[in-house]
Amino acid sequence: MSEKVTEKVHLLIIGSGPAGYTAAIYAARANMKPVLYQGIQPGGQLTITTEVENYPGYPDGIQGPEMMVNFEKQAVRMGADIRYGMASKVDFSTQPYKVEIDEENWIEADAVIISTGASAKWLGIESEQRLNGFGVSACAVCDGFFFRGKEVAIVGAGDTAAEEALYLSKLCTHVHMIIRRDSMRASRVMQDRVINTPNITIYWNSETEEILGEHKVEGVRIKNVTDNSTKEVAIGGFFVAIGHKPNSDIFKDYINMDDTGYINTIPGTSKTNLEGVFAAGDEQDKNYRQAVTAAGSGCMAALDAERYLSAKGVI
Fold it and tell me: Could you tell me where in the chain the CATH 3.50.50.60 domains are found?
């Protein structure tokens, strides 16, 4: 069945976290008349966080959802067309590019900015979701400061988990690291650093049975998978570091990615392998995953798109 194009736009932005909204702000100011679809989670991962203290310009901190509302308001004030809806399919085989919205309408665009972000992987237990934002976090660098001087736990065995455990060990009195197997996946140098840090205790062959606490994290019940014994440890924070999944599946037939689904961009730019398609935010950033770096990459994408559309004589 042929794709029925219902609308033609100069610039389509897919996704609405710090990267998407920043791209919209810059693009609207440059008179590119951007249309942004917010996706399944308007505002992205920041809408499920509580206080943000490390974004410049907010000396007293700000709640994540409020911050994203401010980003959206600024984009709208600049003239961006912000819409509810999710990209469900793309056809990047020919230009102009086509994007299906909500499995219904097709948008045709001269240029596209992908800012769909990445989603944290979770353990899948009820208490983890119930206490998310109330002591449970998937980002130690973002939220570790709130647990200064407290005991915390972290789940994971890769380089990211090791880095975050070491980061937390500098802020917290003790870090309880829960690892399902009898070894770590992290590089040898990272393993050595973790093992040799005196205030990190590793629980090998263990998994999280339950995060304890009614309204905030107060402890964790750890189960040893070899003998089924359990142990409860009093903690104030619980960090999940088992990886992120980039929200990039619908682009895989057209856009170059690494083996885990992160979009490859030309170093120093937001350009993908397709002319006129740009990527900004966590779906192309596996290293930093911060609001401020996402916003910076959104700025880059808008500037790259402006140069592209100007060279094409579209704007």
Answer: 5-119+245-312, 122-240
